[in-house]
Amino acid sequence: MPCLEIHSAERRRRFEILDAEFSVGGSDADQLRLRGPGIGAVALRCRRVGDGLDLVPSTPGGSLVVNGRERPAPAALEHGDRVELGPFLLVFLLDGRPPPVIERSEIPAVRAARARGEGLDLRIDTVPAFDRSAAAGRSARSTPPVRAPIAGRGARREVRTAPRPAPVVPAPSRPQPAGVGRRSRSGRGPVRVAGMPRTVFVWNVMLVAVLVGYLLYRWVDRSPLSREPEDLIGLARTQWGAGDAEQALATLRSAREQTTDPAEQARIDQIAQGIRDAEQRLRDQPVVDRAREEFAVLERFVRTFLRDTPPPRPAARELVRRADDWLREFAAIAGRYDDVRGDVAAVEALRARYLPSAQLGDPDTAEDVLFAVDRLLSFRLRRYAEAITALQAFLASGAPADDARRVEARLAALRTEGPEWLASRRQSIERLVASDRLPVAISELRVLVDGAVPADWLGDAPRRLAELEARLQQGR
Fold this sequence. Notes:
Elements: E1 3-7, E2 12-16, E3 21-25, E4 32-33, E5 44-49, E6 52-57, E7 63-66, E8 69-72, E9 75-77, E10 82-85, E11 88-93, H1 108-116, H2 132-142, E12 146-149, E13 158-161, E14 181-182, E15 192-193, E16 196-197, H3 198-222, H4 229-241, H5 245-257, H6 262-305, H7 313-334, H8 338-358, H9 366-376, H10 384-396, H11 401-434, H12 438-452, H13 461-475
Parallel strand pairs: 3-4
Antiparallel strand pairs: 1-2, 1-11, 3-5, 5-6, 6-9, 7-8, 7-10, 10-11, 12-13, 14-15, 15-16
């Protein structure tokens, strides 16, 4: 499911794009509400266009900051593009593609805070140096001048001299025990403890306290001091909330061993099963998201190609086959969860509705296979490999001569235009690399290498993909 990832100074969240058009702003009427300085009602109007997203600001003639550069409106976003809106950074993401790496310095609110100096520790903990000039001035003012004659005949000149200070014998004092606070020789600066600045001493004490507290917690966790079932259940909930499911389940097993009450044991088993189910849902979530996205594609297919009555046979056959693929891949996992179980019934209903018009008992005609091929080439990253395989399979099935000639002509056209399209896509990917959008470039190049085009068209694409992935890894 495509989404907008919203980054602020405090947190990050995602807004799933369910509608073809929606608005972003600070009013309750906006589908995506963002409150902050510089954001008014209906600040942006957004429209899905294929795999991209068009943004239009509400201010006529306005512009947008996309990927750090100002662009005139409307701005067309692709996967990984960043848009600045007030204190927020919006990132457009497509499902199944790796998200880009977002630095905190890219978030407008963070940049503004750093510009104001917020969150920076500018304190300097040093001992001031002894100012000899100032000390000399003070001693000159505090010591009266003394007149001394100069040896020699008729010497009447006088000079202002200071008396030589007498040696100062320090008064005896008791030695201070180690660890007692004393100040620097100048009498100024922070208090030092046994030659150590006070701030360093305080941090060392806090570190030792944290370490002792952690060791005490681990000892209590493994000790028999707190073995009441209810206390262990509370500990297990805390452990699971901290993300340690395995430790939580181990604690619940210990709680079950501490009671012989069947009702209490059943309650503990129910809590443990709830943790296992939640962990399984986290593992299944990527597949569930992909099932929802593919279900939305089926619904759009129906609205686009099956509006006529009776529905055209090529479109009906394609829908039924896509529904079969969806059920084969997602029915088992979608049936486990209540929020997506309804999608299974909806896909089965679509299949049953258009199955009579599909006439799957009859062999494919040129119209059927050419319609399916056109759908494969309607993606932004065209699936030439699957299209060529479908055409070759039709020709190998012994199709009638007229149908065979039409399909052969289409196959020849694909083999001519496909490499040209691939060269254009490679140039587009290199432009993404040049504009520092390396994750997006890698995602698109990986789709091509993983089977979107025939292997003999790829050339050096696999080697280039390995180079870009190594460069991204080094940058991280």
